[in-house]
Specification:
9-stranded mixed sheet; 5-stranded antiparallel sheet; about 425 residues
C-alpha cells in the first residue's frame, strides 16, 4: 500500500446530493469530474483547489473489470468498488487518474489515505499502489499530474473476499518556498515549508547573523552566533527568505570621541577654561561638558578629511540636568547639522547622514545653546558609509541609528 494514515484523513463532507446529481456509476469506461467540460477539457472558471479531473480504466489481470466501478471523483477523493478474481492471487485492476492544481501556489503530495473503517475501506485483503505519484511530489500551479492506481491482493489475502469498496483521499498540502541569500550551499536546508506548519532550520556554524523575511516582511535578525544556530518559524503562511548578513568593517573618523583622553585631539574655540572633563559618562569612563555660563564662541572642534560624493553618518550623545539644546555640525556645511534637546533622565543621541559636496579637510563642531545648565557630551562619531559599504549601497539613517553604536577606531557590523 502506498500510504495508510489512520488519523490524518481530511474531512469528508456530505456528497450524496452531488453524487445523485452529477455522477453515475461506471464500469471500465472513463469518468470526468463535474468541473470538466463534456470533452474532458478543464473549465476556465475552475475554482481554486486541487481536483481529480479524469479517471480511466487502464488494465486488469483476471479481474471483473466490467462490474468494477469508479463511483465518483470529488475534489481529491476517489470512491470506487473493485472486484478481483476469487481464484487468482495475482488478480489486479488499474485505473489512470489525473489531478489538476488550479491555484497560484504549488502543492506537495503526502500520500493516499483513508479512515480505517468498513465505510471507507472494506477489505484489508486488497491493497493499492500508486505509480507515477509518490510522497513529496510537487504539483505546480496550473499543472496536472497523471498516474495509475492498481488494486491487488495482499500475499496472505483470503480470495473468497474479492471485493473492495474504498473512499481514498489523495492528500496535498500548500507549500511556500524558502529562498536563501549569501549561503555558499543550501542543499542541506529545507527548500519549502508546508502552510501552517513549523519550519526548523539547523545552520550549524555561521560566520554572520541571519535575517528572516516572510512574504517580504522582516521577522527579525538573529544575534551573532558561531555555531549550532537553529531557526524556528511557527505556522508559516507565506514565502520565506533567509539571508545571511554581509560583514562590513567601519571606522570612526573621530579621534577620542568618548573623551577617555580628555580633550586630546579636540581644539577649544574660545575660552580655554570653558570645557571640562566629567565622570558622568555614557561610554568608557569620561565625558566632557561646557560651563553654562560660557556662551558665545566657546565650542570644541576636530578636523577630519572628507571625499566629495561620499555619505557620512555623524552622531553624538548628550545629557543635561534640564532640557537644553545640543548642536553639532560640519563647519559651514548645510545639511550636516545635528540638533536636539538634551534631557536629564538619560543620554540622548542625535544623528544625520551628510553627503559631502567637497573634497578636503573640514572641522566638526560641538556646541550648546544652554543658558542655565551645563550639557555633557559623549560618544561623538563619524563613519564614511560610502567607503565602508560601497557607492549606492550605503545604509539609511534609520539603519545606522539601529545598528551603529559608539565605538573607537574600527568595528564590525552586519547588514
Amino acid at each position: 500500500m502506498d500510504k495508510k494514515r489512520k488519523n490524518q484523513y481530511k474531512k469528508i463532507y456530505p456528497i450524496l446530493i452531488l453524487v445523485a446529481t452529477f455522477f453515475m456509476s461506471i464500469g471500465y469506461a472513463s469518468v470526468n469530474s463535474v468541473l470538466l467540460g463534456i470533452d474532458g477539457s478543464i473549465d476556465a472558471n475552475l475554482p481554486d483547489g486541487i481536483y481529480i479531473t479524469d479517471v480511466n480504466y487502464d488494465s486488469s489481470v483476471a479481474a471483473d473489470y466490467e462490474n468494477s466501478n469508479i463511483i465518483y471523483a470529488h475534489q481529491t477523493m476517489l470512491n470506487s468498488e473493485v472486484i478481483l478474481s476469487n481464484t487468482d492471487i495475482n488478480s489486479s485492476i488499474t485505473y489512470k487518474v489525473t489531478i489538476y492544481n488550479s491555484e497560484a501556489n504549488d502543492y506537495v503530495f503526502n500520500g493516499a489515505n483513508y479512515l480505517e473503517s468498513e465505510e471507507t475501506y472494506s477489505n484489508d485483503g486488497i491493497t493499492f499502489k500508486l505509480n507515477g505519484l509518490s510522497s513529496g511530489y510537487i504539483l505546480k500551479s496550473k499543472q496536472s499530474v497523471t498516474f495509475t492506481i492498481t488494486f491487488s491482493y495482499n500475499s496472505n489475502a483470503a480470495l473468497e473476499n474479492n471485493t473492495l469498496k474504498s473512499l481514498l483521499n489523495f492528500d496535498f498540502d500548500k507549500i511556500y518556498y524558502v529562498t536563501y541569500e549569501n549561503f555558499s550551499s543550501t542543499s542541506n536546508y529545507p527548500q519549502y515549508v508546508v502552510e501552517g506548519k513549523t519550519l526548523t532550520v539547523s545552520f550549524g556554524t555561521l560566520d554572520a547573523p541571519i535575517e528572516v523575511k516572510q512574504s517580504g516582511v522582516v521577522l527579525g535578525s538573529s544575534a551573532y552566533t558561531y555555531s549550532n544556530y537553529k531557526l524556528t518559524l511557527k505556522k508559516v503562511s507565506g514565502k520565506v527568505h533567509i539571508r545571511k548578513l554581509t560583514k562590513y568593517t567601519i571606522t570612526n573618523l573621530v579621534k577620542n570621541g568618548s573623551f577617555e583622553s580628555g580633550l586630546t585631539n579636540w581644539s577649544i574655540i574660545g575660552s580655554s577654561t570653558s570645557w571640562h572633563e566629567t565622570s558622568i559618562f555614557h561610554f568608557g569612563a569620561k565625558a566632557v561638558y561646557r560651563d553654562a555660563s560660557s556662551q558665545g564662541i566657546n565650542y570644541i572642534q576636530q578636523k577630519l578629511s572628507f571625499t566629495k560624493g561620499h555619505k557620512y553618518y555623524f552622531f553624538a550623545y548628550a545629557i543635561c540636568t534640564s532640557e537644553q539644546q545640543f548642536f553639532a555640525d560640519i563647519a559651514t556645511k548645510s545639511g550636516s547639522e545635528i540638533t536636539f534637546k538634551a534631557i536629564p533622565t538619560s543620554y540622548k543621541r542625535g544623528s544625520v547622514v551628510y553627503t559631502a559636496n567637497f573634497t578636503g579637510t573640514n572641522a566638526i563642531n560641538v556646541n550648546f545653546a544652554a543658558t542655565t545648565d551645563s550639557v555633557i557630551v559623549d560618544g561623538v562619531g563619524m563613519v564614511d558609509l560610502t567607503a565602508a559599504f560601497g557607492s549606492g549601497k550605503e545604509p539609511s539613517k534609520s539603519w545606522c541609528d539601529s545598528n551603529i553604536k559608539y565605538f573607537d577606531s574600527s568595528t564590525v557590523v552586519y547588514k
